[in-house]
Amino acid sequence: MFDESETVGREYLWMLARRGMGLQLFHQDNDAFYDLVRLRKRAAEFVAGSSLICRAKSGDREAAVALKTSFWPFVQEFELAIDQQPLPREPLARKFGDAAMRRVFVGMARAMREMKSEEGSHAAHWRKDAECLGISFFADDRIPAVQELIDRAYTRDISLFFSMLAGTEFIAEELSRFLVDSQDFTGLFSRKRWMWGEIHLAPHDDGRSHLEIDLDLARAYGSEDASRIEADVVSAMALFRKAADEIADAALLSA
Q: Looking at the predicted structure, is the pLDDT value of residue 2 above 70?
């Protein structure tokens, strides 16, 4: 008899996929279901339109420090929120049938627990990069929009939760793409690299990406209305832009 719900980190799903263990999704047509080109374009626009991020890209150390320190509370809480999110099986069994639910969900949950200790934490990479930038202390001061991001990460609306994760992943990938090749930015770090960004751009040729998993589960736990899920994803991305603007204002960095 299976418990009705399981606390399972989305990070573990990605770990399982990377290990080439044949992670299956609930849907095989997500590329056609979602307008991924539009979503990625919106994420790139949110990133490139941020004065904070553009200043960091140009080598402005104050902006880079503000980026690393002010988003830290979210980075730290984000993985905790993922680990604490209960994922009920019963709705998936009703929607896909008990056999499919067990095949896709229960099978991978078993292996996830074994891999947690074998993979580095994204939060740890964020902190290490900060140390390479000369940051030795993180205050717990929270910009209002950063707190909004944290609050949304702890939602118990599971489809909204995975839409939030998808929006986060879009932003993480586009932020990485925008900054990782900027020598003015990476030159600010003692090792002349921004590892957090490089990790988010690493190919997933051997398995499913974070984004694929997030979008699949947002749909599995939600409706078949793609526009509704996409609106939630864009809303999450817009909240990151709002937070970046508030950070820029607080640091007196806005133009």
A: no
Domains in the chain: boundaries:
5-250
CB 241 within 8 A of CB 50: yes
Assigned fold of 5-250: Heme Oxygenase; Chain A (1.20.910)
The answer to whether the predicted template modeling score (pTM) of the entire model surpasses 0.85 is: yes
Q: Is residue 53 within 8 Å of 67, Cβ to Cβ?
A: yes
Q: Mean pLDDT, to the nearest integer, of 215-239?
A: 96
